[in-house]
Each structure stands twice: as structure tokens, then as C-alpha cells.
Write a structure and sequence with these properties.
Elements: H1 8-26, E1 35-36, E2 39-44, E3 47-53, H2 63-66, E4 71-82, E5 90-101, E6 106-112, E7 120-124, H3 127-135, E8 136-144, E9 153-161, H4 166-177, H5 194-204, E10 213-218
Parallel strand pairs: 1-10
Antiparallel strand pairs: 2-3, 3-8, 4-5, 4-9, 5-6, 6-7, 9-10
């Protein structure tokens, strides 16, 4: 018995379904939404300040990696942008160098940001103290309030553990050493053009290289009218 051909409309539906399935298989997987970022915000001296809780990035299981006796790096980028998206209006960068002393069983930590580009050094007695230091980003200067756009804003943090890209890490260090040239948008190092800030941010915040341990976090939306002064 010769099978009957399906009606033309049915054939079109089948072909359309096959095409959609092929597109779904070819499309890259969707990015996971950023994790919640607990943030306390205030204004001091006309600048937006923040203290951020990054503890979700540093679980107890990370102790083995950060205590391997090698120099480990943590790069932290914090931005302020409009809730609906677009380029950041402010950018803060920080690099933390960590070396575990296998004899003393302590952590030698060097924190480099725009305030201390050469690095502020300290020795921490155990992983619990290291985790507190890494998790508690205190008094981050997010730039002059007057340079921020109106409307609902969000603070976003990107944390990379042992960044793969040496070029990106070098550019981060250059930005920390000279934030005025990097256009901190009115931050502690001075102001700069929005276009230069956008160029710097687009490089530093580009899609991570394969194998990079990257964590994205985002605060709840807020307006500057909701932020009190200190």
C-alpha cells in the first residue's frame, strides 16, 4: 500500500519544526542570570559609595585552590549602569594577589586599587580571615553622583579567580595605576570622558576566555533619590 503524502500545511509545519530544532541546537547556551549582589549604598562628598557582599564567590571549597602555595589572583570589577542596560557610567577595578605560606600556614595578601596602586600588603592567619577580606568590598568609590545617569540604576560586580587573559590583567593594572587616563567617571582619581570609559569597560568586561572562573552579580535596582548621605 502506497503511503499518502501529508497535506501541504502539515508538511510546512513539520519543516518549520525541524528548522527551529536545528537553530536551537546550533545556538549557544543562554547565559545564566547574575547572582544577587547585596549592596549598601550612600553618598559622601558628592560621590556614590558602596560596600558589597561578595561571599557567594568565595565558598569554603575554594580554600584548597587559594592555599596551593602558588600566587593566586582575584580581579574584581564593579560598575554602575542603568537597569535596562547600556554602557557603565562608572567603573572600579581591584586586583588581589594571594600567596599561601606553606611553612607559616598564613596568607600574604596584596590589594591593588586606585588608592594603593603599588599595593597594600597584609598577612592573614587563616582562610576564614582571607574569605572575609575577599567577600567584604568596603567603601568602593563609584564616582561622582553628578556623572551618573537618571532613572533606576544597578551595581554589578564581576569577579575573576585566576584570570586567564594576561593582556586583560595588564590593562587592569594600568587602569588601577592611572584611573584618570582610564576615565573613572568622576571617581577618586578624577574624571574622564564617557567615551574613553566605555572603551576601557568594553575591554575589561568582555566575554571571559575559556577556562576563566568568572562570577557575575547584580544589585537590586535603585535610584539616587533613595540613597542617603553620610
Amino acid at each position: 500500500m502506497i503511503p499518502l503524502a501529508p497535506p501541504r500545511g502539515a508538511r510546512r509545519a513539520v519543516l518549520a519544526g525541524l528548522a527551529l530544532a536545528a537553530l536551537a541546537l546550533a545556538a549557544p547556551p543562554a547565559r545564566a542570570a547574575p547572582a544577587p549582589l547585596p549592596a549598601r549604598l550612600w553618598v559622601r562628598g558628592g560621590h556614590l559609595q558602596a560596600t558589597l557582599d561578595l561571599s557567594a564567590v568565595f565558598p569554603a571549597a575554594l580554600e584548597k585552590q587559594l592555599g596551593n602555595g602558588l600566587t593566586n589572583l582575584v580581579a574584581i570589577y564593579v560598575t554602575v549602569s542603568r537597569e535596562e542596560g547600556g554602557p557603565p557610567a562608572a567603573l572600579y577595578g581591584e586586583v588581589v594577589e594571594i600567596l599561601f605560606d606553606v611553612w607559616e600556614e598564613t596568607y600574604a595578601v596584596t590589594v591593588k586599587d586606585w588608592r594603593t596602586p603599588a599595593g597594600a600588603r597584609r598577612v592573614l592567619p587563616d582562610y576564614a580571615a582571607l574569605r572575609r577580606l575577599l567577600s567584604d568590598a568596603r567603601e568602593v568609590d563609584l564616582g561622582a553622583v553628578g556623572a551618573l545617569p537618571p532613572g533606576p540604576l544597578v551595581v554589578e560586580a564581576r569577579v575573576e579567580v585566576n584570570p586567564v587573559s594576561r593582556e586583560q590583567l595588564q590593562r587592569t593594572r594600568e587602569y588601577i595605576a592611572n584611573p584618570t587616563a582610564g576615565a573613572r567617571a568622576g571617581g577618586g582619581g578624577g574624571g574622564g570622558s564617557r567615551s574613553v570609559l566605555g572603551a576601557v569597560a568594553s575591554f575589561l568586561l568582555r566575554d571571559p576566555d575559556p577556562g576563566t572562573d568568572v562570577h557575575l552579580l547584580r544589585s537590586a535596582p535603585f535610584t539616587l533619590a533613595q540613597v542617603g548621605a553620610r
